[in-house]
Design a protein that fits this description.
With about 270 residues, the chain is an alpha/beta fold. It is built from nine helices and 13 strands. The protein has two domains: about 5-100 and about 190-270, Rossmann fold (3-Layer(aba) Sandwich), CATH 3.40.50; about 105-185, Threonyl-tRNA Synthetase, Chain A, domain 2 (2-Layer Sandwich). Helix content is about 35%, strand content about 25%.
Length: about 270
């Protein structure tokens, strides 16, 4: 049987969008653990935030931070050297870090330039911890971790649809990307799909042919979902699916957030995968 690899978004998918609880995902987490299925977190969250959830869920697999900006592979995780010549990688504490995104300093500089052009944008780095807590519902410790950014600057934008289109065009002119999930994001030439594809190749080196699944809830998850064999979408808190995410070959999980996440895990396992 082929080795199953599961990739997952966090906010609104594995984690409840409002409470950040993963209690309803526990049955699915346990099934994957019993079957020794690698579960790879793929989120806009920072390394520090993801590490916190990895500890809470006893997850020891690689993870993808800040919308595909960085891949963190635990030391000696693969039985071979995971470095790829010609790509930026470095040892970062107990990880091999593969850098796919732009530097945070460059993103902050671009955002300040957009402000000077008259766009009403406010990045996470512009906010106090208290402001970020009020905006996101995070507690103080979580808000501090969410500001420890390296590859992606989330921001809020005030303006019309036309102004939004001009903003995204101005970001593209800088050679950067504008993405929209729960917040707007300015990133380099990276996304979740590119990072997922990279890890899939490493897993193939280890296991031979693999079968892959992913679960998400927002349009920023589409690049990730497009890279796998079994892409699942969970419902938003209002019971609807994100427009544009539940069409084509994407499978509707039939549940909201972490409840839908467990249903997606059960469905892929019931297909005889993994």
């Amino acid at each position: 049987m082929k080795q199953l690899i599961v990739f997952t978004d966090l906010d609104g998918t594995l984690l409840d969008l409002n409470t950040y609880s993963f209690a309803k995902a526990l049955p699915g987490l346990e099934r994957l653990r019993q079957k020794e299925v690698p579960l790879v977190f793929c989120s806009s969250k920072t390394r520090k935030e993801i590490e916190w959830y990895r500890r809470k869920m006893a997850n020891h697999h690689p993870f993808i931070a800040e919308t595909g900006g960085g891949i963190y592979i635990p030391s000696a995780y693969f039985p071979f050297d995971a470095n790829t010549p010609g790509h930026a990688s470095e040892n970062a504490d107990e990880y091999l870090l593969i850098r796919l995104g732009a530097s945070y300093a460059d993103l902050r500089s671009a955002l300040h330039d957009l402000k000077r052009q008259g766009f009403k944008v406010t990045g996470f780095g512009d906010m106090s911890v208290e402001q970020l807590m009020n905006l996101t519902g995070l507690d103080r410790a979580e808000a501090v971790m969410s500001q420890a950014r390296e590859f992606d600057e989330p921001f809020i934008f005030e303006g019309s649809d036309g102004e939004r289109q001009r903003l995204c065009a101005a970001i593209a002119e800088k050679g950067l990307r504008c993405a929209r999930g729960r917040f707007f994001h300015i990133t380099g030439n990276s996304d979740k799909g590119r990072a997922v594809a990279w890890l899939i190749q490493l897993y193939r080196r280890q296991y031979g042919d693999v079968v892959t699944a992913a679960v998400g809830d927002m349009r920023t998850d589409l690049p990730m979902l497009e890279q796998v064999d079994y892409p699942f979408a969970v419902q938003k808190p209002d019971g609807d699916y994100e427009p544009g995410i539940a069409g084509g070959n994407i499978i509707k999980a039939g549940g909201i957030g972490p409840e839908g996440w467990t249903k997606a895990v059960n469905k892929v396992l019931e297909m005889g995968v993994g």
